[in-house]
Design a protein that fits this description.
The chain is α/β, with parallel strands linked by helices. It has 13 helices and seven strands.
Amino acid sequence: MKFSTEELIEGIQSGNKRLIAKAITLVESKKAEHRVQAEELLKKIMPFTGNSVRVGVTGVPGAGKSTFIENFGMLVIAQGKKVAVLAIDPSSSINKGSILGDKTRMEELAKEENAFIRPSPSSGFLGGVANTTFETMMICEAAGYDYILIETVGVGQSEVLVADITDVFLFLKIIGGGDELQGIKRGIMEMVDLIFINKVDQDNLQKAKNTRLELKRALDFIPPKEQGWKIPVLLGSALHNEGLQDIYDKISEFIDLKKKTGRFGEIRTHQAEKRFEYWVQEYILSLMKKSNAVEEAYLMHKKNASEMVSNPSTEAKLFVEKFLSNENRG
């Protein structure tokens, strides 16, 4: 059944999870007619967006991201808030579908009236973040969700894309063998706002404390991302609900600091500008491919690049110049 834009907006604002999901599916669609309706929908809900706390959660596979998000989400709800989880799953390389299915890993949270969980395939998009995650977040905000938790697939340096759409970037760490700082890229450390060492118990408590000390020393060598904010390194166990209240409090403290200094609005403005730039590129490429001549030129230059006939950046430049010169002649 096809829903009108007005029906979807009414459903979003009344908290109808089925219609919220339908609206997200519409925004994720690549079909031309769906894109038109999606743009209309996003334009009309804009006045109702921007009131949530956006939290990115990253960490290596096995760090306990899903368990953390489920139990942290339950804590947020206990504080009288509504929480939406956008869980970006690695995509199947065959059909680009979601292959983990976070609803099956967050059973308790999924049952909550004030929680909404949306697994989305990353569809091969860099950074483990779907290309419409930002727009999906807008829909959840318009539906009145106070906290938006974005779980990523944890793929290293390109996590910068997650930091680019959130207010708080949380890094989950676990105790491992050898040098505890091995495998933590400087890029992640430069983006992070909060570190939680997860899966801490009596058996590894001392080791966890040593890791915290090492991380704090490492952070001393990195210029502060926000003036007046020393990145907290907290210990706990998401499974046993230990340390989660501390994280909630630190997130609130961090948001308050950014609002007080004016950085909160400044960063969000910058993030919106980045989304604009991303969509400019998407729409230009889409427009180019509508012309048969341009499509042929695109495929030719792409082939030259893939076969390394010449440098890919050179081929891209030649193609764009050819397209723009055709446009000017028209």
